[in-house]
Design a protein that fits this description.
By secondary structure, the chain is of the alpha+beta class. Helix content is about 25%, strand content about 25%. A hairpin with a 4-residue loop joins strand 1 and strand 2. The longest helix has 10 residues.
Amino acid sequence: MRSDLANVEGVSDIQTDIKKRSCQFKLANKNLDLKAKLEEFVTQGNDHLKNFEIVTH
């Protein structure tokens, strides 16, 4: 998960919590369709992102 997110332009400060199965990061490009990008990773075989949920703060 972390490596896929690191490849997305504008994503920084990636913090993962394996026990909680969560990931927090900063997104510089507010116009990026993050949901579509994450779904793309799932279709490419990243099972860690299956059934993801986006929560904003």
